[in-house]
Every structure is written in C-alpha cells, then in structure tokens.
Specification:
Layout lengths: L10 E6 L3 H11 L4 E2 L2 E3 L5 E11 L2 E10 L3 E6 L5 E10 L5 E4 L2 E3 L5 E9 L4 E5 L4 E10 H7 L5 H9 L2 E4 L3 H11 L8 H23 L1 H4 L5 H16 L8 H8 L3 H12 L3 H19 L4 H7 L5 H12 L6 H4 L1
Parallel strand pairs: 1-6
Antiparallel strand pairs: 2-3, 3-4, 4-5, 5-12, 6-11, 7-10, 7-12, 8-9, 8-11, 10-13
Length: about 325
C-alpha cells in the first residue's frame, strides 16, 4: 500500500515489512518510475542516484541505497503478522532535522550526520521523516524466523522470543562493518560476478552483526550506552575519519568535543569499537590507503601525503604492519 501526496506536502510511503524486492517494486510506483531487475534509478523530482533490492536466498533479502533527496519524504512501516528482522546499516547527512521513531524509541541527532546499525522487527511500527537535501546511503538486511533457526546454532524458541521482544536495538557501525559496506556501495556492475560479490558481503555483514549481538547478549545491548554518549562517540568517530593530518587529534581535544572526560571517552570508545582510539584511527587510515591504491588514480607518495604522512617510509611501514606487504607490492598481491 502506498500513497502519493501533492507537491506541497511530503511524499508518504506506507508499507509492510516484506522482502526487499517487493519493497523496491512498491516504492517505484510511488515515485512514478520503473524498476530494472529490482533496481530503481530515482527520477529527478524525487532524488539523485538509486536503490536496489534482491532476495539472495529463502528468508534473506537486502536493499542498497545511495541517494540525495530532492523532495521531503515520510516512510511509514506498519506491523505484520509474519515475523522478520530488519537490520539497517545507514549513514545519513542532513541539513535539517530528521525524525525517526521505532516502536516507542525516538532516534534523534543534534548534528548533521548520523551513523548507526539499527535492528528492529516486523511487529514494530516505524516512522522516518527526511527533508529535501538529505543524503542517505547504506544497506538493509531482512531475515525471517526460519532463516534464523536454520543459521544460528542452538537457536531456541526462547532466543526467538528475545528477538521478537526487542523493538529497537541501536549499535555502532564497526570498522569491519564499514569496510564491507564500502565494498558493497562501491561495487561495479561490470565485475565478473557482481551478484555473487554483493551476496557474499551481505552474508558477511549479517554474520558479523548477529555474532556480535549473540556474544554481547541482546538483552543488555540496548543499554550499552545512553543516547548522549552514543551521539558523542559518533561525533568523535566522524572527527577521526573526516581528515588525516600529520598530527593525530589529541585525546584532550576529542574528549572536549564529546563533552566527557578523557578516561570515560577512552573506556566507552574501546567498548563500542573494540579497539583504542588511535588504533581505530590508524586502521581506518590504512584501509583508506588501500582503497586509494585500488582506485589507481594516485601514486604511493601522493596517497601518503593525502593521509597525513610527511615521510613516505613511515607510510610504507604502517601499511605493511596492517596488511603484511608494502604499498609498492599492492599490484603483485592482487
């Protein structure tokens, strides 16, 4: 079910949580465009870029989006009798306030950037309002109960009930998650096996999230950090990843940006991202270097400068420490 409002009002898309191939087909009708192999190229009146959805095996489908809105929109998901989990790995940049309500949980951001992994289910109503100019990119995964029972060891009725009762679980997008997301978002349709490439990474992303969820105990995950701490840690991560300079941002400056003590910041950051602040910064810097090498547009020395290295040998040593080979050996390793 969907509805198209007048140009003076936001578009409203009402839907029920089913597989993402159906979602893409229903949404294409709302914005008055066609799908090609369950892919949508957004028309100019709605936005720029695309969305695509696909069932990759029984009980598991995915949706990939990367677009900038040219119109306001409201997504309204109503409840279903058939249980499914939805996991969103999203990054949102917005000029104006965004509003998201999942069940009784309201998710807000005081900054212009929001990044999180969010899990909810088809028994929970969802409402998301986005303004013109908002840029959204990410991957959604939808899983049914049969798939969970088949793929999670020692999956019991008690564990299924635990998933059902959690209206909303919000977690950080880890460095490993982000690397897979970039692989998916940057995948090229002209590669040898594009569908297999995306399928393998969607499965890996799903595995990492669910393994982390089970290991950390879903019942305690939502209280992992309060909303203000969550926002503060996202801000710190954004500062770490936005620019690379010769001097690493001091813990003192990062703590001030997060409005918390240095000791609290270090403790919460490691608990959230699984490593110390500098280690996280350096790992992402080296993976950024690898992406730039793969791109092929820049020389090794240019990449070193772009990532804040004054000395090329220091860059080479750091790269080898992360990947086990020098930047100059990159093409041989491929």
């Amino acid at each position: 079910m969907n509805a198209l409002n007048t140009a003076t009002k936001p578009l409203i898309f009402k839907y029920q949580q089913e597989d993402y191939e159906k979602w893409v087909n229903d949404f294409s009708r709302l914005i008055e465009t066609n799908t090609v192999a369950t892919n949508i190229k957004y028309p100019e009146h709605f936005g720029e870029e695309y969305a695509k959805g696909k069932i990759i095996e029984p009980g598991l489908s995915y949706r990939i989006v990367d677009y900038t809105l040219n119109a306001d929109i409201e997504y309204q998901s109503y409840t279903s009798k058939h249980f499914t989990l939805s996991i969103y790995f999203y990054e949102i940049n917005f000029n104006d306030a965004a509003y998201c309500k999942i069940g009784e949980t309201i998710i807000e951001s005081n900054d212009t950037f929001y990044s999180a992994a969010i899990m909810t289910n088809s028994f929970t109503e969802q409402n998301l309002k986005l303004k013109k100019g908002t840029h959204i990119k990410g991957v959604s995964v939808q899983i049914d109960a049969e798939w969970l029972q088949k793929n999670i060891s020692d999956f019991s009725a008690e564990k299924l009930e635990m998933f059902r009762q959690k209206d909303c679980v919000t977690d950080f997008i880890t460095a490993k998650n982000r690397k897979i997301l970039l692989d998916i978002l940057n995948s090229k349709p002209d590669t040898a096996l594009p569908h297999l490439f995306i399928k393998s990474r969607v499965l890996r992303l799903t595995e990492q999230f669910l393994t982390n969820l089970c290991n950390r105990n879903i019942n305690g995950l939502q209280e992992f950090s309060n909303p203000k701490d969550f926002q503060a840690l996202m801000k710190v991560e954004q500062l770490l990843l936005s620019t690379y300079t010769p001097n690493f941002p001091s813990i003192e400056s990062l703590a001030k940006a997060a409005y918390m003590s240095e000791s609290k910041l270090k403790k919460l950051f490691k608990a959230a991202y699984g490593m110390a602040i500098y280690q996280y910064y350096q790992k992402n810097r080296m993976h950024n270097a690898k992406e730039l090498l793969c791109n092929g547009k820049y020389s090794i020395s240019e990449i070193g400068v772009m990532l804040g290295y004054k000395n090329l040998s220091n860059f080479s040593v750091a790269f080898k420490k992360e990947f086990g080979y020098l930047p100059s050996e990159f093409q041989q390793v491929l």
